[in-house]
């Protein structure tokens, strides 16, 4: 996900006009450019000192010496960040002052484009920091967030509320957008002039609307209030995320009795034994709350008590413990409501949804309710089937939530003669990557080549160059795939450098995929569960959105689309994983080299809609809880847990877990970019189901469909409204029932 994953939002520290750059990404976009040198040569007397700083601080070099201008991660240390932030912040402020005081009449180049280009070195440094904050950070590194975030928040708020800058933006908007017909998609998508003109229109309109949403029309007093809100909010997100990570890392389950692991797959036990050894345990098996460890435990462990401990620990992270997030939630909600009040919106959700495809809380809610009306009855039936199965097979009369994973898997195995663990030997991580890149080559004609001369932030990170079929360089990709205590859980894609126009010309993107997959052991390579392989395909879909971007202005490039459109490229990529034609390209047994048996694949396909109702209800529960938090005035919320229980009661099918709380670890909405936007996953999934139906109809490697998806969806970014792009690809507006049909919840017409 973009940020599945989806990623941790840092856009709270950006002016509204620049948040478009961060959709579905973990941090500010990383850009390199001219800013530093403007500052260096502005004062000849300080030139020597500043150049010395450049030589000693790799973050302050105006240009990387690497052949791809890759970031020198091998040289960067914690102590480099604060000086670099302070130095590049000075440069960015000087650029803004130059823009604001430009005596020339406002036009697109000296105002809108200048805003898209300013502060490149600051963005570069901040992007590195915030990406590493999630991927590789210790306590000292994390502490910097409380200093860096407010500085950036204050600066960016000062821009979005600056009357002189807004006056220039408004003048350009009046000249180029107001009263003008919105450019349509060119009939000839190779008409670069027409595409550039359309981007120019879109960038101007988005800049103007961004300043409005950022408080440009407020009084001086209210602007000051908005800045204070931004500064405080910028501190809360990293605190929340750090608490979740702390709570996750704090729990371990060390099993020493062989009876407690009876029946568990050997691959799972090998991983648990390896983890125990790595933590200095005297034998046995160690499990933690990372999905690669916890999910197998809940799926295969016969011992109900151990399942209870694991499930309860996960469900209660950062709730009534040493990492409690309740007060942070209440404060975040209060600040968000304050901002909505200042900007003239009834609630935070109304503010957020006004700049989404859905456009309103009502539309998003109606969309979710339609799915609920179909999925809930199915989910209740599916749940009861598992309860009945547990009673029939093992005499379980007091069915609990921690029984669900175990007996669901048993029921699936009984019904389809299929256990997901059977697939692991065919999904060695190296084979999955090879297959992923081979599939991408068949779809889009790209080549992905591993390289070893690119510095990384950790020894486990691999690096890849991506090329088009003509041999043109498309971008650099980092892959950081395995868990560690210095990395938050989950999976996400992010950018260190965005495609598009920079101060020194057009650049190709540098992207990263970060996950926490099953690691290798001394005796066994990394063998992935099917859902882990799906995560890799998903995040690579996000990466393709950046790598195949073909716009002109970086502020509209790649994943900079409206938030409820950003998951379409990632979710559609998952479909190839369950297609025999695709699997035949790479699914080989890691020991024998034998292809995945067709009968096993058939079992997987037959079982793909198993418990589809429950899966939908789980996501709907998160989405509706998110909207409940952000459509209720914070003054009415005094008890976090009580509010959550009330908001989710209608989704509660299994009995609740005592001491559990979703919200206190709900990083997507309290430390990420999905506040009032978690519905986006289902929204984009509906778009994806309809888009995939065209591939399904015409052929999964059909060159015409592939090219259409690339040129209308992946290449265009935010140059046009997403609905216009979807219609151009699909030939019509989305089928509102596509998702329900795909999941088998409503019949598909013959």
What would you note in describing this structure?
The chain has 750 residues and is mainly alpha-helical. Among the domains are: 11-244, Up-down Bundle (Glutathione S-transferase Yfyf (Class Pi), Chain A, domain 2); 251-315, no CATH class; 326-418 and 611-678, Neurolysin, domain 3 (Orthogonal Bundle), CATH 1.10.1370. Helices cover 51% and strands 6% of the residues. The protein has 29 helices and 9 strands. It has helices spanning 35-40, 47-56, 81-100, 108-117, 120-135, 139-143, 145-160, 163-176, 192-213, 220-249, 266-278, 291-300, 304-315, 326-343, 348-353, 361-394, 404-416, 429-444, 530-547, 568-573, 580-583, 598-606, 612-631, 640-648, 667-670, 680-698, 703-714, 722-730, 738-742, and strands at residues 252-255, 285-288, 447-451, 462-467, 473-480, 492-497, 500-502, 505-507, 510-514. The strands form 3 sheets. A 5-stranded mixed β-sheet has the order 3-4-5-9-6, with helices on both faces. Strands 1-2 form a two-stranded antiparallel sheet. The chain has a two-stranded antiparallel ribbon with strand order 7-8. The protein starts with 34 loop residues before the first helix and ends in an 8-residue tail after the last helix. Mean pLDDT is 91; it is low at 1-52.
CATH superfamily of the domain at 11-244: Endopeptidase. Chain P, domain 1
The first-to-last residue Cα distance is 33 Å
Strand content: 5-15%
Mean pLDDT over the full residue set: 91
Give the strand order, joined by hyphens, for the main sheet.
Answer: 3-4-5-9-6
CATH topology of the domain at 11-244: Glutathione S-transferase Yfyf (Class Pi), Chain A, domain 2
Q: What is the level 1 CATH name of the domain at 11-244?
A: Mainly Alpha
Helix share of residues?
40-55%
Number of strands: 9
Overall shape: it is: globular
Largest β-sheet summary: 5 strands, mixed
Radius of gyration: 25 Å
Secondary structural class: mainly alpha
CATH architecture of the domain at 11-244: Up-down Bundle
Q: Give the helix tally.
A: 29
Low-confidence stretches: 1-52
